[in-house]
């Protein structure tokens, strides 16, 4: 009855399915509404790299516009020819997306190649759709055909802003071919200018708009339409009647526990760019702080903060783990307050939910300045916390209304790292009034704390109309111009900021500016952030010394190994080539030597050592093929010696049991 289309194009490659779609599928199914999902990101990637690669080749060849910045790439594929272009894309997709060998994901060059090609191909499609107004594309045809073949009574889309003309074109084509009602919603909707709804309805090609939470609104709307009734009075629903826009009251869901578990049964869970499944869930909606001067995200839930009960959170984690064979989770909360974090971690431990990995967002507020709390979080499975740091200048933090002290940030990051939690910090430059000296204070803070920070996500200030600074720009010395741009009375002007920021990015790219630890390669700004996020939330590196200690102590079941490199045949010999330092996601860890000749046993060990098996598992599998005790003992010793030899030369990674790629 309802066909729901997962968002097709996002800013980055997704490492997990769309939570909003999963929640809506569950809500509709609970009300007896048959719901079919049309895959978005995973389907889009396969179309680009495999199904429609011949058309993509033609589109690139026909491009006359050089401003896309792909002239060099266009020339390179012309020299190779169509067949080689298709084979390379297909092999890359197979290698990165389908094979799922965890070893592949530490190959930074390979992952980055896939990520860069995705960006190029998106640029090409967007140019054809927006600049050339060309919608006769196979990728469009396939979506439209699949949607219509699903025989829907209603079609649902998520608005993704101006960056998603693909979705808009699909809706336009459906409108031209059918009279099926189209319903749109999504996180963007609360920011829509209600005064422009008439124009938006026309330009975005839909019939019904759900603003904000759709868990109740969408199934209620469909049930009402099925009964041939007017959707008047259905919370958050807007529609056209008699040539004018009719809007209902806006509201949120107070009792979140009444919502069903997100339903991921129709997603391609193993076709995202991660070696293992990651699933998102919410433990709360809204932000408990909601006072940051630059942020308008709280408007999605009308500035109100609501939580799921601890019982519901635990049941949801168990449900997702048991039903989808998943142990890696992302909390899609705006932020996790320290008191709430304490309660959730204690509930996880008391309910004996073991061997899970959690990635969460939080503010660097004083409540986290506690070894006891951070130790409890780590024990419960919180592997990575993405901190909203924003700045290293106290005056700028105060102007942002963060209510965070630089001295407290320092203590929290050190304690968090000490307790085994990976620290990821969000910062941005260019907040109105920020001076170059204050921006440099942020850089110096990061340098000083580099040993405690695995990753920094750097961005620039974005002016949001619905934020406190957007509603009262004069308070921050901001002057809004007629064209929508702005200037500031104090701090760096645009020219000064551009010079500062370009120099910073240049320093990061050549690694002359160190702002993160040596454990992970600094992947800013060019490398694939998604993969790093998974790696840092799933692994802890063990040194060669610890490896030997475990082996000596007979604790082989605790060590999970990945041998980094590749094997290839040279005549009748099998050669092992370690991955060069510059080719991995890790720095200052590996010092490969020349190729090494492997015998048949060592080749099997390499294949098995991809992070999914412990040393004990690998030895058992290999030794089990031999009959006598003497043979087993000989092979066992040879396996152990091979591991020790490789790791003494830094050819791999080893992880403790709780961090394995399970």
What does this structure look like?
This protein is an alpha/beta fold and 662 residues long. The chain has 3 domains: 2-247, no CATH class; 277-467 and 521-538, TIM Barrel (Alpha-Beta Barrel), CATH 3.20.20; 544-659. Helix content is 42%, strand content 16%. A 7-stranded mixed beta sheet has the order 2-1-3-4-5-6-7, sandwiched between helices. Helix 9 (197-204) links the parallel strand 4 (182-185) and strand 5 (208-210). Mean pLDDT is 88; it is low at 523-527.
Strand residue content: 15-25%
Shape: globular
Largest beta sheet: what is the strand line-up?
2-1-3-4-5-6-7
* Oligomeric composition of the shown chains: single chain
Total beta strands: 23
């Amino acid at each position: 009855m309802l066909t729901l289309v997962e968002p097709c194009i996002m800013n980055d490659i997704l490492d997990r399915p769309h939570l909003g779609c999963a929640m809506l599928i569950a809500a509709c199914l609970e009300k007896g509404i048959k719901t079919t999902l049309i895959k978005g990101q995973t389907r889009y990637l396969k179309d680009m790299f495999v199904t429609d690669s011949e058309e993509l080749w033609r589109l690139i060849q026909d491009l006359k516009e050089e401003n896309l910045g792909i002239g060099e790439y266009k020339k390179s594929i012309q020299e190779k020819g169509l067949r080689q272009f298709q084979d390379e894309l297909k092999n890359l997709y197979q290698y990165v997306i389908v094979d799922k060998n965890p070893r592949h994901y530490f190959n930074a060059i390979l992952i980055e190649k896939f990520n860069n090609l995705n960006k190029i191909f998106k640029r090409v499609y967007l140019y054809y759709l927006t600049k050339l107004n060309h919608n006769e594309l196979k990728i469009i045809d396939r979506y439209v055909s699949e949607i219509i073949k699903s025989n829907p009574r209603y079609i649902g889309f998520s608005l993704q802003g101006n960056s998603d003309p693909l979705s808009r074109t699909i809706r336009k084509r459906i409108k031209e071919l059918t009279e099926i009602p189209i319903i749109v919603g999504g996180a963007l909707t609360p920011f829509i200018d209600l005064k422009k709804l008439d124009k938006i309805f026309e330009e975005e090609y839909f019939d019904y708009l759900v603003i904000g939470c759709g868990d109740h609104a969408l199934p209620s709307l469909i049930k009402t339409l099925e009964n041939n009734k007017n959707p008047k009075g259905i919370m958050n629903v807007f529609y056209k009647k008699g040539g004018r826009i009719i809007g209902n009251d806006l509201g949120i869901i107070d009792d979140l526990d009444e919502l069903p578990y997100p339903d991921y049964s129709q997603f391609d869970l193993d076709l995202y760019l991660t070696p293992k499944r990651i699933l998102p869930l919410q433990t709360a909606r809204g932000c408990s702080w909601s006072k940051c001067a630059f942020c308008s995200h709280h408007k999605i839930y009308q500035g109100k903060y609501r939580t799921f009960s601890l019982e519901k959170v635990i049941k949801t984690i168990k449900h997702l783990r048991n039903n989808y064979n998943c142990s890696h989770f992302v909390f899609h909360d705006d932020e996790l307050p320290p008191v709430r974090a304490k309660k959730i971690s204690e509930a996880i431990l008391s309910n004996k939910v073991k061997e899970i990995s959690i990635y969460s967002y939080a503010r660097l507020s004083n409540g986290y300045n506690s070894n006891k709390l951070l130790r409890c979080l780590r024990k419960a499975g919180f592997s990575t916390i993405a901190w909203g740091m924003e700045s290293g200048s106290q005056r700028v933090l105060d102007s942002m209304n963060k209510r965070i002290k630089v001295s407290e940030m320092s203590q929290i990051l050190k304690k968090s790292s000490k307790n085994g939690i990976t620290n990821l910090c969000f910062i941005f430059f260019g907040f109105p009034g920020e001076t170059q000296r204050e921006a440099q204070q942020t850089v110096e803070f990061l340098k000083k704390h580099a040993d405690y920070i695995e990753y920094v996500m750097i961005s620039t200030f974005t002016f949001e109309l619905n934020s406190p600074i957007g509603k009262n720009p004069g308070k921050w010395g901001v002057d809004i111009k007629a064209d929508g741009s702005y200037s500031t009375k104090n701090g760096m002007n645009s020219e000064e900021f551009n010079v500062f920021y370009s120099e910073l990015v240049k320093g990061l790219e050549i690694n002359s500016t160190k702002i993160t630890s040596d454990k992970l390669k600094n992947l800013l700004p060019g490398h694939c952030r998604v993969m790093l996020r998974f790696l840092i939330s799933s692994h802890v590196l063990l040194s060669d010394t610890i490896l030997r200690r475990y082996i000596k102590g007979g604790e082989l079941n605790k060590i999970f190994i990945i041998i980094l490199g590749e094997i290839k045949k040279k005549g009748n010999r099998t050669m092992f080539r370690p991955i060069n330092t510059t080719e991995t996601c890790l720095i200052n860890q590996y010092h490969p030597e020349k190729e090494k000749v492997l015998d048949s046993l060592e080749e099997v060990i390499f294949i098995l050592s991809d992070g999914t098996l412990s040393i004990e598992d690998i030895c058992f599998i290999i030794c089990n093929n031999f009959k006598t005790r003497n043979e087993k003992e000989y092979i066992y010793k040879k396996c152990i010696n091979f591991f020790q030899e490789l790791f003494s030369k830094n050819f791999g990674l080893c992880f403790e049991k709780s961090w394995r790629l399970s």
